[in-house]
Amino acid sequence: MSGFLNGLRQRSAACIAALVLLLTACSGSPGPAGSANGPTAAEPGAFPATIAHKYGTTTVTKPPQRVVAVGLSDQDALLALGVVPVATTQWVGDYPGAVGPWARDELGSAPLPVVLRPENGVQFERIAALRPDLIVALYSGLTRQDYDTLSRIAPTIAQPAAFPDYGVPWQEQTTTIGRAVGRPAQAQRLVADVERRFADLRGRHPELAGARGLVATTYDGYFVYGPQDPRSRVLTGLGFTLPPGLDQAVGGRFGANISRERADLLDTDAIVWIVADGGEQLRRDSVHSSLRVAREGREVFVDETTDDGRAFSFASVLSLPYLLDRLTPRLVAALDGDPATPA
């Protein structure tokens, strides 16, 4: 069986390579990716750019014109930098072009990207047919085999080695993509702007500093997001601390299910639940109802089917400004410990 699977993988890779060669031979120079204000010029000295990642290094030698975003939220950094990808990967919601409302201004009048729907894995053939000259997969769980196959199509930047899969911080996501598209200084400015928003909110709400917080959902019981998940970093960016032992509970991954015996992790000063039912399932749960965080109304229920919920999951350079002014007042209300205060 293993020999059969290896042979199948080899034939698939050979077919993709042949497709790439055929498309290159049969087409003229591909048109550039769109942008709201026309093509964005590279900054002086930006190329070549060599970027390290989980599977080695990738060198980009010139400004990419046709970028495919395989990472689930990578399109936001591209759009913020003035680069409209030719394709995005569908994740939360069903937005045209997989571009959320927080990024529509950056899209402008450019053509919508093609949306890849990888229910059965990375769509290699569709990606090859788009003739990309750069593939970005930072917020992803790309395997070595996926990376090797994509690299046969175009230079590919995988997730960084320093973080778990689906754990790249929004700052690193933005600056890495900025280097790849020749806009490193602009990327640094974008990051600094959003970090100032966090600092301003911390200054206006000193009660957040040191408060213990957590992000969780009801996927297969209790699922908690760890210290290296972008959603958790929203809380820590506002001044919260995470529960001791959380990293051990998730095993260094972006998140994990916990047993009911470890429900003590949920008993924080404030908790954000990402749910689709307004918390009805939780309210029927005896363990949940016994927690102080529930009795004192220290919970914020974020509807995962809304723009706010999807912006929270994206936790990107574009979605965070959209999210922070909506989420922060609810966290402040939850911290007062008064169940009568709506959060």
From TrEMBL:
Tagged with keyword Signal: yes
Pfam family, one: Peripla_BP_2
Keywords (A to Z) from UniProt: Signal, Transport
Location in the cell: Cell envelope
Any one GO cellular component localisation term in the record: outer membrane-bounded periplasmic space
A Gene Ontology biological process term: iron coordination entity transport
The keyword Transit peptide appears for this protein: no
Domain of life (superkingdom): Bacteria
Main location: other
Protein family: Belongs to the bacterial solute-binding protein 8 family.
Protein name, as recorded: ABC transporter substrate-binding protein
